[in-house]
Design a protein that fits this description.
With 193 residues, the protein is of the alpha+beta class. It is built from 6 helices and 11 strands. Strands 1-9-2-3 form a 4-stranded antiparallel sheet. A hairpin with a 2-residue loop joins strand 10 (187-188) and strand 11 (191-192). This is PAZ domain-containing protein.
Length: 193
């Protein structure tokens, strides 16, 4: 199972085995990205991809309902604007590379919400998060075994670069005096648990 996160475009390059982002097969990409969760880099939010746009960012127009800049009352004319222009003007995000690429559709069927590829990273899925929590929450003896086994496996004492700088790494864990704390107690609705 792949636990990597990162830019959506890099995820597609790896999945399709291409060397260039312009060689991506968008039909395959649409299938691979469906139901994948992405995290925004400019706001704190996570979205689920339902598809890709048919046109590139700089060709998708939508109607933007305007607001008065000074808070004045009255009717404001809606304007037709591209996704690219919206992110440049209203979000102050300059889409450099992927303005001519398709957008991620994170809306609902029949009501699309298009987001540019450039500003979103693939978030780990729920299954990946659960696996990560299980791996991180290892028992102390299991954690110790993983560390000591990796020290034996990688043989850092035989790495020429480390020995050239007189760096040595012990294979044993460092011992120190300490004490074991009691587990914390939690109060729920006034009762101690």
């Amino acid at each position: 199972m792949v636990l990597t996160t990162g830019p959506v475009i890099d995820f597609q390059i790896v999945k399709q085995g291409t060397q260039d982002d312009h060689a991506i097969d968008w039909v395959k990409a649409k299938k691979k990205l469906k139901n994948v969760r992405v995290k925004a880099t400019h706001i704190n939010g996570e979205f689920k991809i339902i598809g890709l746009s048919e046109k590139p960012c700089n060709e998708i127009y939508f109607t933007l309902k305007g607001k008065h800049q000074d808070g004045a009352q009255g009717e404001v004319q809606p304007e037709e604007i591209t996704v690219y222009e919206y992110f440049r003007k209203h979000r102050n995000l300059h889409l450099t590379t992927f303005a001519c690429f398709r957008c991620l559709d994170v809306g609902k069927p029949g009501k699309p919400n298009y987001l540019p590829l450039e500003r979103y990273t693939k978030a780990p899925s729920y299954v990946q998060r659960a696996i990560l929590v299980n791996k991180v929450g290892q028992k102390p003896l299991d954690c110790k075994k993983v560390l000591t086994d990796s020290m034996d496996k990688y043989e850092y004492d035989k790495v020429p670069l480390l020995s050239a700088f007189s760096i040595s790494i012990k294979k044993q864990l460092t011992k120190f005096d300490g004490r074991v704390l009691d587990t914390p107690k939690m109060k729920v609705s006034g009762d101690e648990d």
